[in-house]
Amino acid sequence: VGRREALEEATLVVHKLHGTAGSYGFTEVSLSAGRLEDVLRSAKDVSRLDWGVVDAAFRELARTASVPVKSARKEGPAAVLPTEGVLLVVDEDARVLAEAERLGRAHVVRVLPARTASEAVAVARKQWVDGVLIHMHLGGEMGGIQAAHQLRSVEGLGSLPLGFTEAAGGLEDRVAAAHAGASLFLPRPFTAQDFAAAAERMVAARRPERARVLVVDDDPEAIAALVHSLASEQVEVVGLGDAHQLMEALAEHRPDLLLLDVQMPGPSGFDLCRILRSTPAWQELPVLLITAHLGLEFRLAAFQAGADDYISKPVLKEELRARVQARLERARLSRERAERDALTGLLLRRPFIEGLRARLSEAQRQQRPLALCFLDVDHFKRVNDRYGHLAGDRVLTRLGRLLGARFR
What we know:
Number of domains: 4
Keywords: Phosphoprotein
Protein name: Response regulator
GO molecular function, one term: protein kinase activity
Structural class: alpha/beta
InterPro entries: Bact_response_regulator, CheY-like_superfamily, GGDEF_dom, HPT_dom_sf, Nucleotide_cyclase, Rev_trsase/Diguanyl_cyclase, Sig_transdc_His_kin_Hpt_dom, Sig_transdc_resp-reg_receiver
CATH superfamily of the largest domain: Response regulator
Organism: Myxococcus llanfairpwllgwyngyllgogerychwyrndrobwllllantysiliogogogochensis
Order of helices and strands: HHHEHEHEHEHEHEHEHEHEHEHHHH
Helix content: 40-55%
CATH class of the largest domain: Alpha Beta
Shape: globular
Number of helices: 16
CATH topology of the largest domain: Rossmann fold
């Protein structure tokens, strides 16, 4: 019995190394640990182990683990964000640039005009930019695509929100824009409504509210690895080692996404996912499962349990970040549509109350003050009576954008 327990313990240690090493960027170590884990799991007891194979797998793991690694480059200090949105508009037509600046003033967005790609790059190097709108055929055939590549090659702008403008906007242009990484394609010249929507979307993408991810895993080292991979200025990661406390942790932290390990003592990741999908308050919460198994049976079980996605061990940092960010962005867009007033862009009553409770809970946990302000628009009925309801709507729209740009 003691030898079998020793085998199980060794398998568990290698299993943890398999999952954790990849999260820290040690891919070769993770793969070697996975091969050793497969060898150990293939034997039901110690007497059936092929010690020659075990020794070879262990030596390979020891070799890959001893390879020195370079220290990661430290990031520079974060830029100080301007209070208003900042949009870079690149177009050779002075009339288009002038109209963009006029619309920017009307919608509390600072427009930085540029007529060439080199001018746009020079502007982007000097100051903060939330997004860029580029004429598709800037200076000639597909010149806007080249300008986009030049802008995104600037350090710190690799994920700069990008949009193109073009009068015709045929399928070929739209495909090229999508391949260049654009999230928007607007008519040229653009309308006030299109400009306002583009500015709002780009600012929201460049300055997202800090998202919260809850990680549930019985292995503290795995949690630490996931925190190391995901935590940033935009993402807060909270770890939970006891799956039995999931509902309490959800109520306390109110995460935007849940990462669940499938294999845990007690309820499995599948079980927890089913529980959430049967609980009205958490039915829409994005759930990603983490597992060492990716067979057809597992994939079917994951989606049948209600998971949105899954990721395999070893967990690679780049893939994990990409999957999590994609789910967070989809959840944010869905939440925007459901929780915000279409006219002002401000929270509706129910989500406002829920958000206030979450902020109060956060302030109490961190022992920090919380400021709350109630505003009333004085004599607003007079605006409607004197200038009409359309003018009143414009006042509310601009006020909403102003508040959204300057307050959390």
